[in-house]
């Protein structure tokens, strides 16, 4: 049973396109996150939702828009994709937080390549 | 927010204990120390966390100094599958992971 699942695993698209990444967690956690891991391997928070409410919105271009239809799902929509958006995007969840005073559980990532 | 510093890389022989150090000299009293690892390009995996006392679970042991300014993650019998990047994080810093320690377990 996958605790935090993301789809798709790989996403290759052209500049200017709009794409979405989906995330679901079956842990019953209240908080979900989107992280971006760039080519230098640093993992940075992008967004966090607690019970469908946006809690954290780091300095991210407004082309990125998270949507949480319920507390088990947090999707990431990206408009007008740019080359610099190429990265691995990880979804995560935690029972509490943010800041997460309980462990983060990560999905296996979505590798986005913009050509 | 507490900053953490870790050595960029370490080697360990298979079957031996791997001791991964972390400095967090500015940690505040209510911040936990968390350890995660990332194997190849998978999602980070939670290992263990602690506040003041030493902790042990099925994966590892965490030793926190009395002044809480540093900690050590111990993998008691490292295997090749433990080769990964290990991240030490103070809970309020968990929003951004640092560069971690790349542990290479040698056969």
Give the biggest beta sheet of chain A.
7 strands, mixed
Could you give the order of the helices and strands of chain B?
A: EEEEEEEEE
What structural class results from the helix and strand content of chain A? Answer: mainly beta
Strand percentage of chain B, roughly?
35-45%
Total DSSP E strands of chain A = 11
* Rg over alpha carbons of chain A: 13 Å
Contiguous low-pLDDT stretches of chain A (5 residues minimum) are none
Spatial strand order of the main sheet of chain B: 1-9-8-3-4
Percent range for helical residues of chain B?
under 10%
Radius of gyration of chain B: 13 Å
Multimeric state of these chains?
heterodimer
The number of strands of chain B is 9
Helix/strand-derived class of chain B? Answer: mainly beta
**Mass-distribution shape of chain B:** globular
**How is the biggest beta sheet of chain B arranged?**
5 strands, mixed
- Count of DSSP H/I helices of chain A: 0
| CA distance, first residue to last residue of chain A | 34 Å
Give the termini distance of chain B in whole angstroms: 38 Å
**How many helices of chain B?**
0
Shape of chain A: globular
Describe this structure in words.
The complex is a heterodimer of chains A (115) and B (107). Chain A is an all-beta fold and 115 residues long. Chain A is built from no helices and eleven strands. Helix content of chain A is 0%, strand content 55%. In chain A, the strands form two sheets. In chain A, strands 2, 4, 5, 6, 9, 10 and 11 form a seven-stranded mixed beta sheet that branches. The mean pLDDT of chain B is 92. In chain B, β5 (55-56) and β6 form a beta hairpin. In chain B, the strands form two sheets. In chain B, strands 1-9-8-3-4 form a five-stranded mixed beta sheet, with no helix packed on it. A four-stranded antiparallel beta sheet of chain B has the order 2-7-6-5, with no helix packed on it. Chain B is mainly beta and 107 residues long. Chain B starts with 8 loop residues before the first strand and ends with a strand. Chain B has strands spanning 9-13, 18-23, 33-38, 45-50, 55-56, 61-64, 70-75, 84-90, 101-106. Chain B is globular and about 40 Å long. The chains are: A mainly beta (115), B mainly beta (107). Chains A and B meet through β5, β9 and β10 of A and β4 of B.
């Amino acid at each position: 049973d996958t605790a935090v699942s993301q789809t798709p695993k790989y996403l290759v698209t052209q500049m200017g396109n709009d794409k979405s990444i989906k995330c679901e967690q079956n842990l019953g956690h209240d908080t979900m996150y989107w992280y971006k891991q760039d080519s230098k391997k640093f993992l940075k928070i992008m967004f966090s939702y607690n019970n469908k409410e946006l809690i954290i919105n780091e300095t991210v271009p407004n082309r990125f828009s998270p949507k949480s239809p319920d507390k088990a799902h947090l999707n990431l929509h990206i408009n007008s994709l740019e080359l610099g958006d190429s990265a691995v995007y990880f979804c995560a969840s935690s029972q509490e937080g943010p800041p997460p005073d309980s462990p983060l559980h990560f999905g296996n990532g979505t590798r986005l390549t913009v050509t | 927010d507490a900053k953490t510093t870790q050595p960029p890389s370490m080697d360990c022989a298979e079957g031996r204990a791997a001791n991964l150090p972390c400095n967090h000299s500015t940690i505040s009293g209510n911040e936990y120390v968390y350890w995660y690892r990332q194997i190849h390009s998978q999602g980070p995996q939670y290992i263990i966390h602690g506040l003041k006392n030493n902790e042990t679970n099925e994966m590892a042991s965490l030793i926190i100094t009395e002044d809480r300014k540093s900690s050590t993650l111990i993998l008691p019998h490292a295997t090749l599958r433990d080769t990964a990047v290990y991240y030490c994080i103070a809970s309020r810093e968990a929003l951004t992971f640092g560069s971690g320690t790349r542990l290479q377990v040698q056969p």
